[in-house]
């Protein structure tokens, strides 16, 4: 029974190391996705410290690739030093992922206040040109999230751009895609997105932060299993003089 358990632990450990390589790619992708999305929404969210979880999760992803390599070599070669190093690094990464989860929840709670604080300023800076960063950001968000204004399209009446244009219309990015010949005129509100952007931007940013949190939680659970299997192999290797090698089927003296 004991030998069956140790062999199973080694087999699971090798399989987990392969999962770590896949996890490394997924975590780096999630972190990069957060960076790319933040770049699209950065005008609505001034706190750059929100990117800390994304930075950490990319670093963890890169480290997981190295961990997978160390774990595979240590398990196949039955290296006590390698397995001990593997367990210690996994523990450090596990703690780091717990920190990512905590930071994710902290910054997720701050999203709404940050957006509420900055969105009015961004709309006030809108001038309707593609060369202006706030204008590009607003047009992008309104098209992507299918929204118009802060709470609704009537908010545009309070902006400097609306007062200067004097044509009683909102930007064309407020127009529904299935409406032809839309000019953004407020006299035809049916052509415009009825929902405001503030709530949708908050929802989008919170979803992004949840991706980071769930990714960290998922791979933290996998790492716990990896640490358990490595500890079983280490303990068995130390106590059993007839320890069976994974590759050769021989014994360790």
Features:
two-stranded antiparallel sheet; 68% helix; mainly alpha; disordered C terminus; 253 residues
What would you note in describing this structure?
InterPro entries: Tetraspanin/Peripherin, Tetraspanin_animals, Tetraspanin_CS, Tetraspanin_EC2_sf. Regulates the proliferation and migration of oligodendrocytes, a process essential for normal myelination and repair. It is a multi-pass membrane protein. It holds the Pfam family Tetraspanin. Interacts with claudin-11/CLDN11 and integrins. With 253 residues, the protein is mainly α. 68% of the residues lie in helices and 2% in strands. The chain has six helices and two strands, in the order ααααααββ. It has helices at 2-41, 52-77, 80-124, 133-145, 160-165, 197-239; strands spanning 243-244, 251-252. It has a two-stranded antiparallel ribbon. A hairpin with a 6-residue loop joins strand 1 and strand 2 (251-252). Helix 1 packs antiparallel against helix 2 and helix 2 packs parallel to helix 6. The longest helix is centred in the middle third of the chain and has 45 residues, at 80-124. It is elongated, with a radius of gyration of 26 Å. The two termini are 20 Å apart.
Write a concise synopsis of the structure shown:
Belongs to the tetraspanin (TM4SF) family. 68% of the residues lie in helices and 2% in strands.
Write the layout of secondary structure elements.
Elements (H helix, E strand, L loop, with lengths): L1 H40 L10 H26 L2 H45 L8 H13 L14 H6 L31 H43 L3 E2 L6 E2 L1
Helix pairs in contact: 1-2, 1-6, 2-3, 2-6, 3-6
């Amino acid at each position: 029974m004991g030998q069956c358990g140790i062999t199973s632990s080694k087999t699971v450990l090798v399989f987990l190391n392969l999962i770590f390589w896949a996890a490394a790619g997924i975590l780096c992708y999630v972190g990069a996705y957060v960076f790319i999305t933040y770049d699209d929404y950065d005008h609505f969210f001034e706190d750059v410290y929100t990117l800390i979880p994304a930075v950490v999760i990319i670093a963890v992803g890169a480290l997981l690739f190295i961990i997978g390599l160390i774990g595979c070599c240590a398990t196949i070669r039955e290296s006590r030093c390698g397995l001990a190093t593997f367990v210690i690094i996994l523990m450090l990464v596990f703690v780091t992922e717990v920190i990512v989860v905590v930071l994710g929840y902290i910054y997720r709670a701050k999203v709404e206040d940050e957006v509420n604080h900055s969105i009015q300023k961004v709309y006030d800076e809108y001038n309707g040109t593609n060369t202006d960063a706030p204008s590009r950001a607003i047009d992008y968000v309104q098209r992507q999230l299918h929204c118009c204004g802060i709470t609704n399209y009537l908010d545009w009446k309070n902006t400097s751009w609306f007062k200067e244009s004097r044509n009683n219309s909102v930007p064309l990015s407020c127009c529904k895609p299935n409406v032809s010949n839309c000019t953004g005129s407020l006299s035809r509100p049916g052509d415009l997105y009825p929902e405001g952007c503030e709530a949708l931007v908050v929802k989008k940013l919170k979803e992004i932060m949840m991706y980071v949190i769930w990714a960290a939680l998922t791979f933290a659970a996998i790492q716990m299993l990896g640490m358990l299997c490595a500890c079983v192999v280490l303990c068995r290797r130390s106590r059993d003089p007839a320890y069976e090698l994974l590759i050769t089927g021989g014994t360790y003296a």
